[in-house]
């Protein structure tokens, strides 16, 4: 029985040892970090000592905790900082050239001639920039009297045939500028009924209204400048503008007015609407607004440039920016000096190329030059067809030949 117990006990121990060995072999071998491996070697217990004890006990030193990840991050950050090229200081932008100061508008003369600008919202912009064009001309004043939503169709809203005579009586204009029609593409009400746009009855009535408004100006013997409509971005608006411009041109010419054609200034070479184009100085600029109808400041100035040329022709010297009013207050003092008794003898013109330099006092051309004493060979040949005698001894000396 003791033998069996011993054998049984040994079997249990053997199985336990096999299990422990298996577990130990299955455990992964973890190598110590580099800093730990560099420490002093410490003797470790073997498997039997761990199971049954015995021998000197050693305590595995607790591995030091090394904060590796943050240190590596700091090292990478430092390396990036060293490798990073020093940021160049932003070069200061060159200062934009200062625009020349705008000259102050000159004081207008009391008898300055006035330009009256009437019409819709397009006429309003035209009047503003036309005033800029003549701000240095003391003899010209621009009066802008537009109504943005007006036209020749809605006379119930604003009646230009009634308002224009009153404006002319008030301003006493030397020139009247009309730009109207952008709001007129709508139904027209007449005493006979409503007229739909577009239609022949509508256009016939519109022609009468254009001619009637133009006649109010020309019958007063005032120059009339009727400005045509520009191109528009909308194809339908553009088509109608061409039709209306034809009416303006024809009807205004019938009563003695002038039609100012601005169409080519706001289209390209193919006749298409443009937003950007050449301004009045030939530089590229945005001329039209984003709605394809209104003008920018550069566009209004170009529009006014067309009208300015016509206006200066009518105004003449009054439109000159150098005009100065001369009267007794600004004339220089003139002194009448008596003749001096010691006045110098009048100098007579003498040729600077006089070869004699003898101080002669004869006027140039006072006496014909004396005839030459001996005629030249040229004079003999030209006048009488004779040649001078040949020099003696020359082969053409025929007298010598005859004597021999």
From TrEMBL:
Residues 69-106, 352-404 are annotated as: Disordered. Residues 94-104 have a biased composition (Pro residues). Residues 71-85 have a biased composition (Basic residues). It comes from the Bacteria. Pfam families: DUF459 (PF04311). Residues 376-386, 393-404 have a biased composition (Basic and acidic residues). This is DUF459 domain-containing protein. It comes from Pseudorhizobium endolithicum. The lineage of its organism: Bacteria, Pseudomonadati, Pseudomonadota, Alphaproteobacteria, Hyphomicrobiales.
């Amino acid at each position: 029985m003791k033998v069996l117990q011993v054998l049984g006990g040994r079997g249990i121990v053997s199985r336990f040892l096999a299990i422990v060995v298996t577990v130990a072999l299955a455990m992964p071998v973890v190598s110590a970090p580099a800093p730990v491996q560099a420490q002093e070697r410490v003797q470790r217990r073997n498997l039997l000592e761990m199971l049954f004890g015995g021998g000197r006990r050693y305590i595995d030193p607790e591995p030091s905790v090394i904060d590796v990840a943050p240190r590596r991050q700091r090292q990478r950050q430092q390396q990036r900082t060293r490798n990073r090229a020093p940021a160049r200081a932003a070069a200061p932008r060159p200062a934009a050239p200062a625009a020349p100061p705008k000259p102050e508008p000159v004081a207008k003369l009391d008898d300055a001639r006035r330009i009256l600008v009437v019409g819709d919202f397009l006429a309003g912009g035209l009047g503003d920039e036309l005033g800029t064009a003549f701000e240095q001309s003391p003899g010209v004043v621009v009066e802008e009297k537009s109504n943005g939503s007006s036209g020749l169709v809605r006379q119930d809203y604003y009646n230009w045939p009634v308002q224009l005579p009153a404006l002319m009586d008030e301003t006493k204009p030397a020139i009247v500028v009309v730009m109207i029609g952008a709001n007129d593409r709508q139904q027209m009400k007449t005493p006979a009924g409503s007229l739909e746009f577009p239609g022949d009855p509508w256009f016939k009535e519109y022609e009468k209204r254009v001619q009637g408004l133009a006649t109010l100006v020309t019958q007063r013997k005032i120059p009339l400048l009727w400005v045509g409509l520009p191109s528009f971005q909308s194809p339908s608006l553009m088509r109608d503008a061409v039709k209306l411009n034809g009416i303006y041109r024809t009807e205004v010419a019938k009563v003695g007015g002038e039609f100012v054609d601005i169409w080519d200034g706001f289209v390209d070479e193919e006749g298409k609407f443009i937003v950007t184009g050449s301004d009045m100085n030939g530089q590229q600029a945005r001329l039209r607004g984003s709605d394809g109808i209104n003008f920018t400041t550069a566009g209004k100035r170009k529009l006014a440039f067309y009208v300015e040329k016509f206006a200066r022709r009518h105004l003449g010297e009054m439109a000159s920016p150098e005009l100065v009013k001369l009267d007794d207050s600004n004339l220089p003092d003139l002194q009448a000096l008596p003749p001096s008794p010691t006045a110098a003898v009048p100098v007579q013109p003498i040729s600077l190329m006089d070869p004699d330099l003898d101080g002669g006092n004869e006027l140039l051309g006072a006496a014909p030059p004396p005839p030459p004493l001996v005629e030249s060979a040229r004079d003999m040949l030209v006048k009488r067809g004779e040649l001078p005698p040949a020099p003696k001894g020359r082969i053409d000396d025929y007298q010598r030949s005859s004597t021999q």
